[in-house]
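lol forgot to send this yesterday, sorry. struct tokens for the thing we talked abt
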């Protein structure tokens, strides 16, 4: 381990879960690299965190849907050996039926939820592996395992985050690099608005909505426990175990070279 203070990168850091992750990681002694579109909010957050925690906070105003901005952030991440945590938090939800959605909205969700997350992971991974340390935290959603009539693209993109991270975890099993995927349920963030997702926070049952602070604190507790998959709102962790066992059983049942009997013509 280097004696230099380590850096945590947080995308989507200007509000919501990203801003809370930035606060909690600064409190843990990390310097920060904060990425988001809104430079004014990033600057205000950076000023607050640097004063509160004596952290070095670098602000990177970038639109991760934009190729030029994404390539710039990739280059910065790939060439900074002090980075030891990447929190892929930036995400977008446009909750409409596909028939009522624009192709632009679908492409935006794919670009941010899938493409940017994948490329930034690619950017940090070689350095993490060469140093045999580091952690990648990918923020998915409970809708990764449950599609609604208005969430085809969003659920599909978050299912990718879950599957991508699980595959990465299998790849990293014999290394010092860790990956965690977090699946929040409804959380009180700006995603719930007519302007962003199309669904206001008031449309949700209050008892189903977790605060951003509680969600991140639960996720970081799971991280400290070295959980591979963290469900902040699920009390019975046996439910995930049973689900994962059933998934593995189903996959094993596919490993035959003949059609299932019900598909055979008599």
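and heres what i got for the seq, position by position
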């Amino acid at each position: 381990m280097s004696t230099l203070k380590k850096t945590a990168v947080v995308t989507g850091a200007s509000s919501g879960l990203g801003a809370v992750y930035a606060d909690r990681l600064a409190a843990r002694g990390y310097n920060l690299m904060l990425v988001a579109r809104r430079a004014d909010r990033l600057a205000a957050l950076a000023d607050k965190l640097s004063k509160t925690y004596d952290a070095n906070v670098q602000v990177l105003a970038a639109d991760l849907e934009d190729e030029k901005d994404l390539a710039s952030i990739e280059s910065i991440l790939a060439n900074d050996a002090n980075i030891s945590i990447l929190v892929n938090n930036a995400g977008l939800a446009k909750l409409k039926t596909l028939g009522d959605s624009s192709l632009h909205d679908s492409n935006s969700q794919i670009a941010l939820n899938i493409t940017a997350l994948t490329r930034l992971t690619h950017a940090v991974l070689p350095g993490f592996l060469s140093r045999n340390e580091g952690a990648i935290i990918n923020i998915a959603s409970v809708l990764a395992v449950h599609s609604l009539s208005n969430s085809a693209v969003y659920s599909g993109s978050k299912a990718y985050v879950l599957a991508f991270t699980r595959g990465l975890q299998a790849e990293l099993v014999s290394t010092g690099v860790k990956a965690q995927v977090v699946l929040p349920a409804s959380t009180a963030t700006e995603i719930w608005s007519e302007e962003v997702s199309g669904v206001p926070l008031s449309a949700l049952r209050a008892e189903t909505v977790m605060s951003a602070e509680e969600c991140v604190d639960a996720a970081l507790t799971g991280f400290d426990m070295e959980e591979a998959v963290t469900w902040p709102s699920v009390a019975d962790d046996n439910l995930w175990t049973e689900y994962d066992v059933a998934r593995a059983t189903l996959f094993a049942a596919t490993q035959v070279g003949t059609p299932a009997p019900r598909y055979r013509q008599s």
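Residues 94 and 165 are 23 Å apart (CA to CA). anyway ping me if u want another try
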